[in-house]
Fold this protein.
Amino acid sequence: MSVKAFKLVPAVEWEILMGDRPRINIECVECCGRNLYIGTSEGSICHFLLEEKNSPSEKTPFSISKQLHKYLSVRKAVGELKAASALNRLLVLCDNTITLMNMINLEPIPTGARIKGALMFTLNENPVNGDPFCVEVCIVSVKRRTIQIYLVYEDKVQIVKEFSTREQPCAVAVDGHYLCLALTTQYIILNYNTGASQDLFPYSSEERRPIVKRIGREEFLLAGPGGLGMFATVDGISQRAPVHWSENVIGAALCFPYVVALDEEFITVHSMLDQQQKQTLPFKDGHILQDFEGKVIVATTKGVYILVPLPLERQIQDLLASRRVEEALVLAKGAERNIPKEKFQTMYKRILQQAGFIQFGQLQFLEAKELFRSSQLDVRELISLYPLLLPTSSSFMRSHPPLHEYADLNQLTQGDQEKMIKCKQFLMSYLSEVRSTDVANGCKEDIDTALLKLYAESNHESLLDLLVSENSCLFADSAAWLEKHKKFFALGLLYHSNGQDAAALQLWVQIVNGDIQDSTRTDLYDYIVDFLTSCSDHELVWKYAEWILEQSEEVGVYIFTKRPLEDQEKNSFNPDDVIRCLKKYPVSLVKYLEHLVLEKRIKKEKYHTHLAVLYLNEVLRLKSLGMERQEKLTETQAKLRNLLKRSDLYRVHFIIDKVAGTDLHTECAILYGKLEEHDKALHILVHELKDFSAAEDYCLWNSESKGLPYRRKLFHMLLSAYLNSSTSNPELNMAAVDLLNNHAAEFDAAWVLQLIPASWSVQLVSSFLMGAMREGLHSQRMTEIALSLAKAENLIYKHEKVKLKESPVLLSDRKLCQVCQKPFCEPAFVRYPNDTVVHTHCAAKRLVNSNTNHHLSSSSGRT
Amino acid sequence: MKPDGKVVLLGDMNVGKTSLLHRYMERRFQDTVSTVGGAFYLKQWGPHNISIWDTAGREQFHGLGSMYCRGAAAVILTYDVTNLQSMVELEDRFLALTDSASPDCLFIVAGNKVDLTDACAFLPESEDKQIEKPPNSFISTKVKKQVHVNDAIAFYRKILKYKMLDEVNAPAAEKMCFETSAKTGYNVDHLFETIFEMVVPVILQQKAEGLPQTVDLNNCKTAKNTHSGCCR
Ligand SMILES: Nc1nc2c(ncn2[C@@H]2O[C@H](COP(=O)(O)OP(=O)(O)O)[C@@H](O)[C@H]2O)c(=O)[nH]1
Ligand SMILES: [Mg+2]
């Protein structure tokens, strides 16, 4: 509970004051600047000078020297002393009279101005009138239930107000226009300007001495029931929770942020910030406790003591040392308005950081993080707690004085592994949060390197994310650490991000080869392929090409076929080189050629031929293996056919030679087609393969984009092939009928009718005949329409021409050519439809210059 | 920091005011010591700071009540559902304290300790997982409810009458009467959050009017419910 907020130091001891007169008591005390006045029970006033010493380390932080000891005219107790330093006056209440004295020599003023009939009085520390040459004094009069307000000048007094209260006042404090009064049974606030009053709360003055203490602008502290110190504003509101004193409290004083109270045995100190009791000092027989401009003075009847506040920072440090973070922060925050802004901020930041480390030490990470964050802690303070995390090159030094008591994490956790892990997890999450914020400025390397180390050590998946994104990891430190923790894949990434791709690849290849162990990626081979595919260092690609292909021909070839577009555009890999390299890897080679021919559509005979030959060889090889590879065979054969059909670039004769003597009839037919030897091709299809639909297809794809006549020619050839066979073959006849009926439009009907055998019934070819008729009619009508349209168009042009010739064009000397602005000297000219008239040569020039300008050339004439 | 609005808990000692506030702010229930004088918490509610005052129910501190209530935007009159006297006290002793509250002050009636009564439902909101079962199930720890919601509603109507407020304009009684348990947490968040929601417009209005959170002593006519005869 306890804080050491104050130190009790004796100021004036009995001997100095009174020497050997034991029956005399201290009645009241006043302190103003360096002046300390003591009023005694036998009507004397003692004046001391209080000199503060600069070095706070000394036991008594001030020295005291007696100035004067002055007896008043009456030997009665001095009730109250108040200094008005602006007027150089001391107000002395004795025998119900307030006299004015010179503050320094304690002589009564010559005019003898005084206020009579006062039971007690108080000065208004926050007067409204603002006149610097007077003070406002409020007195409780000897007249029953009467309060008076006076203005006191250097040598005169003037009453300004008198009013009565509903009960006898027994204590009073003033602020502005407001009086806070303890009546016999009530505390009230009274606005002496308007007379309005506000009850605060009831209490009994008979049971207990009331306390009314102004604690600041418009706020008072009152002794309430049950030993409560109640706060009340002039509006009659309590804005702070009460402090809890003992029942027999005698006096209260304020020294921000503390409320000090006195009872018969103790001085207690409460914080106004959290209402907690902070300190208790044993103190017997005290009867006065007052604060004077921040100085708290207590007195017994025989001696005066000063409560010296300990420096706030000391108090805060004490609190932090006993891990009372909350209280320390409240205290620090509460001091904000008493300390210059800049100084406060520096101090407060530091306290937040210390508090953060205390929370951290107790593994209260959430709280710690909030404190570190709000105080913008240099993250390295935290990192440096963790052994080996800061890079060896880091220039960081812990702040001095230290923010915490820990040497390192080992000390903090005392070897508890579980705690250690928690601390590390915290640091990881904290660093990853701050690394992209302002806090990281100037120490990005340290943060990222530490983070990398933590990730590596704990097998954290974010290690890779860190390395592949932009980071400031220091190379040497990180590399050594990754190697130590066998994070070879990550090490490769680090090499890569430092521009050392060769080293990275070497490592990864070693991993795939099983020379070193790191299971980070099970698909590391694919990763390397990807890496090389987009690698801009082509020498590296060549260097590892063989190794890559050896692992997998199918995937490995990606390093050539899947290169990024810009790489492909630059053609930085010469296909011939690649093909040479792929010689040993047939699967890859096929894939690569497919890439060249089918994807990139490179129009080079040798690649097309090469690919065709490879397909062909493969087909033949698969055929020789028999049924077992049927599926593969079908697939490859389809590819082969497709290539043969689609490409016009391969060497047809070369392939035909290879196909000849095999049973690849379809392929053979395709090849003949390429050579436009259609009768050979159709012969194969019709007579050898008897594949009629293939034959029809053949006609269709061979005539693609070659126009109707060509297609007709093919279809006629096919029909002839069906019908002209030496032996009448019903199967072929059926095919011929089907062909005719299905493709009526592809035939010249007249020619067909001559060819088909007379024995065929009309019924048989009715579909063909109908189609042919329809087609004939259709084309006749289409032609007629076209003819009529052309005629109509012709007519429109004629009409335009006539219209243009209608009006005469006058050419005179004054008329200028619109192009060259010169007169005409020849009868020939050019007239544009918009009536502009120009020289013929100008028009000719224009026509050359602007081919786009249609209408200018549209008509010309001559008169 | 000056709070924007004030909510005050009133009620006899031991009804559970401190426990309710503790439950809401600290999310816990623990044995409390009898409150001395008063205490308060600051609650951040949206952009507003609301101070919640816990007062002492003891007779000794009764006189302080009206000072705590002065300018209050809402007063929670708290009773103990197992204790009829606690409801009687509200009417006899505490209602008068609200004279000093703000004229548009809201009144809320809260019956606490429902966990003790037989009719009480348990309680989805409860944060205490381990609800104590009586070790011997022959003896029930439940007691009979002495104050029912209807009694609270009747009391709320009395408040309105006392304040000379028209029932039509005031919030509906059903909405302003709560039954809670600080022990289990039942209805506690609901209680406070409903109040905050309702208090915010009052705060905004007070701010808009630029008034202090008090009755202006110089301007008695606006405060229709001050019984003072001191105006000249
Ligand atoms: N069973 C039960 N006991 C409660 C509840 N709330 C408070 N108490 C108990 O009632 C007693 C008084 O509570 P306290 O909060 O100090 O009441 P206050 O005087 O109104 O502040 C304490 O022993 C609490 O543990 C509740 O909801 N249920
Ligand atoms: Mg309480």
Residues 120-139, 211-232 of chain B have pLDDT under 50 and may be disordered.
